[in-house]
Specification:
By secondary structure, the protein is an alpha/beta fold. The chain is 30% helix and 17% strand. Helix 1 packs across helix 7 and helix 5 crosses helix 6. It binds glutamic acid.
């Protein structure tokens, strides 16, 4: 490692790693190696009710077993609450926030937030906090998916930065952490592409540096559903790290990994060949 900046893998500790999350970890790890920057691990553990006891340790152990060694201390979002509240204060000073009491049911059929509570600008604890997107347009070239642009008013509209139950929303915590952590490369699953313009807008408003983004394909089942904890994807078998790696590398355009290599050799083989420009855009059936 000798470059400035870094990449990161940011699992939510809601369960053990499975092949789908291993793919995201390997993609960001290989990218950081190739860019010669640090690779960090952050635990997105804000949503306490969804956290599974022991999943944080299990995830870290699984990364180690696969030779995915991270740099520096593991960051836990649950330890950064004061910083998120400071960011909320900064956004409030810019008069971008309002206090929304719309119920889930009220918004169920709305593809774009209809602006119902925009006039509620007095802080209230019993409300969600939303950010007014106004006419923000975000454009960038995704390192895998190519050029993208969004009008945030059309892509969902004003969005939640603090939930009604008081929890800081994923968008805000992610934007602040990536910005503060000198993260210069966010390589993650394609399912998060649509969240990116919101995070970029937040970083711009907060004066934080915006990383480069690359959204890699997902592993899906035969009916096209993402392999995920919700779909009961099997936890990784930690006794077979090389087999696991061999199953995810082709999704990154790394075909025919050597059959008899161990996990360390496989990662070196992959690091020599990895090229985001050659990662397929399409999901891969696992
Ligand atoms: N914690 C998120 C997840 O596990 C990923 C966050 C990110 O990479 O921005 O889906």
């Amino acid at each position: 490692m000798n470059g400035v900046g870094g990449g990161r893998f940011a699992p939510s500790p809601t369960g053990p790693l499975h092949l789908g999350s291993l793919l995201a970890a390997v993609a960001s790890f290989l990218d950081a190696r190739r860019e010669r920057v640090a690779w960090h691990v952050r635990l997105d553990d804000l949503d306490a009710p969804r956290n599974l006891a022991g999943a944080d340790r299990a995830i870290l152990q699984a990364l180690e077993r696969h030779g995915l060694h991270w740099d520096g201390p593991v960051v836990r979002q649950s330890e950064r609450l004061p910083r998120y509240h400071e960011a909320l204060t900064l956004l409030a000073r810019q008069e971008r926030l309002f206090y929304c009491r719309c119920s889930r049911r009220q918004l169920r059929d709305a593809a774009v937030y209809p602006g119902t509570c925009r006039h509620r600008v007095e802080p209230r604890a019993d409300s969600a906090v939303r950010l007014r997107v106004d006419d923000a347009r975000i454009a960038f070239t995704d390192l895998v998916q190519g050029q993208r642009q969004w009008s945030l008013a059309e892509a969902g509209g004003d969005f939640v930065v603090r939930r009604r139950d008081g929890l800081v929303a994923y968008q805000l915590a992610t934007a602040v952490d990536d910005g503060d952590g000198a993260i210069t490369r966010v390589i993650r699953g394609r399912d998060l592409l649509e969240t990116t313009p919101r995070q970029v807008l937040l970083m711009e408003l907060l004066g934080l540096p915006v990383p480069a983004y690359g959204h890699v394909p997902l592993l899906v089942d035969r009916s096209g559903r993402k392999l995920s904890k919700q779909n009961h994807a099997a936890p990784l078998d930690l006794d077979r790290p090389a087999d696991n790696l061999r199953r995810v590398l082709p999704a990154l355009g790394l075909d025919d990994p050597p059959a008899d290599a161990d996990s360390g050799e496989l990662l070196s083989w992959a690091a020599d060949r990895f090229d985001l420009a050659r990662v397929p855009r399409r999901d891969r059936v696992s």
